[in-house]
Amino acid sequence: MRRRQFAAALGALPLVGRAVAPAAWAEGDEWPTRSVRIVCPFTPGGSQDNIARRLSAKLAEYLGQSFVIDNRTGASGSIAADNVAKAAPDGYSVLLGNIGSHALVPHLFAKPPYNAFTDFETVVWIGTQPNLLCCHPGFAHDTIPKLIAAAKAEPGKYQYGGSGIGTSPTLAMELFKQKTGADLTLVSYRGASASMADVVAGHLPLCVANIDSLMGQVSAGKLKPVASTGAQRSPAAPDTPTFAEAGFPDLVVTSWSIWAVPTGTPAKAKEKLKAATERALQSADVIDSMRQGGFEPGAMPPAEADAFIKAEYKRWGEVIRAAGITPQ
Fold first, then answer.
1. 60 and 134 in one domain?
2. Is residue 125 helix, strand or coil?
3. Beta strands in the chain (DSSP E)
4. Pairing assessment for the beta strands 67-71 and 36-40 based on DSSP bridges
5. Cβ-contact 90, 98 below 8 angstroms
6. What pLDDT, in 10s, does the model give residues 130-153?
7. Domain range for residue 160?
8. Are residues 122 and 137 in the same domain?
9. Both 47 and 141 in a single domain?
10. pLDDT digits (tens, 9 = 90+) for 104-135
């Protein structure tokens, strides 16, 4: 009897498993159960790093786990992106994706370390930030028409500082040169603070960077804004005209940000991250904080964001080739 009872019990086990299967745990349902790593391609204190930290604090509040910023800088964002591309697709490594990692790097490297379109999935659109062209307060050619005329009259004479050729601000200036025929010379720096310091000191007439990197010196009267690359005037610099206002609608250029995860990350984890981020982006304190830095929170479905990123990839590839920039 005991053998028969034991066999019957064993036979019943699959039935029990089948009975509870519809309600069983699905991969990603319990995410996050531990700390999540936000990999940021920028140095601490920079505009994009600040965005990541503002959002990570909210995500920790909403989801009950810490979101830790892991700054991995260099190579136009490719070091950070490659790290996440090769991470386990489990929802615990998230990239602060941006124009550099997704639209520029693929054209700047002869053999990119990752594929921006097959190695990542876009989770949520975060927002955009324009670039700002500034000059020394004593620089005579302090409007776009004046600058174009001066740069054409004396080709190569006027220099501008920027953070290397593979960044959104300097490529925006390459596009400016291509569209206007203005002949300006790039002086490459490691970061916006160094180029800005040389303009303030009078060593260079112009510098270009993300808007929040320059606004402190603009507010202090040590830099004069010439134009921004936004589609509209930035709330952070409402008196500064855009390149579009000066007659160049093709010069709308923004540094945009997304959360991206390795391809194959569980759908439930992506859904939770997306929902929590969108909730944070509707928070009044996050909105105010971002806008003070010239960053505009936004909402865009992942499919629409992917289409935009592909369009940016195509656009900047054409600019890079026209500028004669050779992939390294």
1. no
2. strand
3. 36-40, 67-71, 93-98, 120-135, 159-162, 185-188, 206-210, 224-228, 254-262, 296-297
4. parallel
5. no
6. 999 999 999 999 999 999 999 999
7. 130-251
8. no
9. no
10. 999 999 999 999 999 999 999 999 999 999 99
